[in-house]
Design brief:
- This protein has 12 helices and 2 strands; from the N terminus they run ββαααααααααααα.
- The chain is mostly helical and 291 residues long.
- The chain has 2 domains: 141 residues, no CATH class; 90 residues, no CATH class.
- Helix 2 runs antiparallel to helix 4 and helix 10 packs antiparallel against helix 11.
- The model has no long low-confidence stretch (mean pLDDT 91).
Length: 291
């Protein structure tokens, strides 16, 4: 059991949820690594739309095969040894794999009409958005394979892993979150509703961004929870700090030291560790503007 105190709402992950989160994170990280490798390969080996259509497609298939192998490896780790990669792909993964269909659609819409031209050479700048789009297709398939893994585990009555978040739970969480954002929840009930929102569907980054902005993260528990779930919320906190500094400057600063202390207090409020760095940033901006 692991727990987090999100401004009074105690969020708990039992062993089953903990194990599911581990599987989910493993495939998320695997998908990121696979996509980075795919993009590097394409940027170094593709110069024309014809090459993009041919080489990138094949490389994408190979990349997804790698994630499929990780899926079977995970299943075998839970003692299920009667499912090989072919069975896993055809029986369990088919509904989650969309790369080939999406690539073929892209090929028909963009690649084929242009690659038939005598000179279909293009520069890396124009190829990069297409490579990014294809990379996203691959990421989605590689990550979504973890759903198929969970399907296998549930079908084989593995009780140590919880199911993924289904559509019904996601809808309930979304409705509660909308009501919370719109101010329809009474103050005494807010922590209860926050607990429900996160428990029903903890995998929504925008929930944590809203909570940090509105309620702060003084104890850094939201940041600890997002790290556990696989999100890096520090960049959002940095964004909030930059917005706050900009607002201070726009409202005219009469007392620099007082403004710097406000920055430190706000940094502590949202759970930014490097409060003095932001104070120094304001100092540097004001010094530059008055020079």
């Amino acid at each position: 059991m692991v727990s987090f105190d999100i401004n009074g709402a105690i969020i708990e992950f039992d062993e089953k949820n903990y194990n599911y989160n581990g599987i989910r994170n493993n495939f998320r990280l695997e998908a990121i690594d696979i996509c980075n490798e795919f993009e590097n390969y394409c940027l170094n080996n593709v110069l024309t739309l014809s090459q993009l259509s041919d080489k990138c497609f094949k490389k994408g298939i190979e990349s997804i095969e790698s994630a499929l192998r990780r899926g079977v490896e995970t299943i075998v780790g839970y003692g299920i040894i009667t499912i090989d990669i072919n069975t896993f792909k055809e029986v369990y993964c088919k509904k989650y794999l969309k790369y080939e269909r999406l690539f073929n659609n892209l090929d028909k819409e963009i690649l084929s009409p242009n690659k038939s031209k005598k000179n279909n050479y293009t520069n890396q700048h124009s190829l990069k958005p297409l490579i990014k789009k294809i990379s996203q297709y691959i990421y989605d398939d590689c990550f979504n394979i973890h759903y198929a893994v969970i399907d296998v585990l549930i079908e084989n009555k593995v009780e140590s892993v919880s199911c993924y978040i289904d559509e019904e739970r996601a809808k309930k969480s979304n409705a509660l979150f909308n009501n919370y954002k719109d101010g329809f929840i009474s103050k005494p009930d807010e922590y209860k509703v926050v607990k429900q929102i996160i428990t029903l569907n903890p995998y929504r980054r925008d929930i944590y961004e809203f909570l940090i902005k509105e309620d702060g993260d003084f104890t850094k528990e939201i940041e600890r929870l997002t790290e556990f779930l696989g999100y890096d919320i520090k960049d959002y906190k940095d964004e909030l700090m930059n917005i706050y500094i900009k607002e201070l400057i726009e409202n005219n600063i009469n007392d620099l030291e007082s403004a710097k202390e406000k920055i430190r207090k706000y940094a502590r409020y949202i759970g930014c560790k490097e409060e003095n760095i932001y104070a120094m940033r304001l100092d540097a901006i004001c010094t530059f503007e008055t020079a």
